[in-house]
Amino acid sequence: MEPETNMRAYEGAVIGERFRLDRYLAEGSFGAVYRATQQAYGVPLRQVAIKIAKRPMSDNEASKVFGDALLMARLVDNAPKASLRERFVLVYDAGRCPDTGPLPGHPYLVMEYVHGGSLHDALKSGPFPLTRTIAYFEQILEAMDFMHGGMDNPI
């Protein structure tokens, strides 16, 4: 059995010369999430979230593990309304860390970085007002309808 990878230790590392892992955010059994900076030619482009697996994987295994996120990226890009695309976290990129850098062979998924914290943190101050809850629920239903074949979506 492989030793557990200390994912927090990679804060500050650069993945594939394109993603600087600025801040370790959280970790689960599969991998860790960082706030990162996407860069091109050494120029910072934007803040992103990047999820990196704790262990190396083949491209085939990684495509299965991240399959739902990759499918969602393709579908959301073709959403019929811009407001519908706002219901999803955008997926920008995916790949495996190069063999010559930190975390060699570990797959990653690069997503939109969403400011504002988690739902768990938001609920610490108490339940949402009913009107806000209904508005959120309607947005969730609209997104679920789209993902499950509504709105002329060809799933």
Structural class: alpha+beta
Assess the beta-strand content as a share of residues. Answer: 25-35%
Quick one: overall form?
globular
Question: What is the oligomeric state here?
Answer: single chain
Average predicted confidence as pLDDT: 87
Largest sheet: 6 strands, antiparallel
Indicate the topology.
Blueprint: E1 14-15, E2 19-27, E3 31-40, E4 43-53, H1 59-65, H2 67-77, H3 82-85, E5 91-96, E6 107-112, H4 119-123, H5 130-147
Antiparallel strand pairs: 1-2, 2-3, 3-4, 4-6, 5-6
How does this model look, in words?
The protein is an alpha+beta fold and 155 residues long. 29% of the residues lie in helices and 28% in strands. The chain has a 6-stranded antiparallel β-sheet, with helices on one face. A hairpin with a 3-residue loop joins strand 1 and strand 2. The termini are far apart.
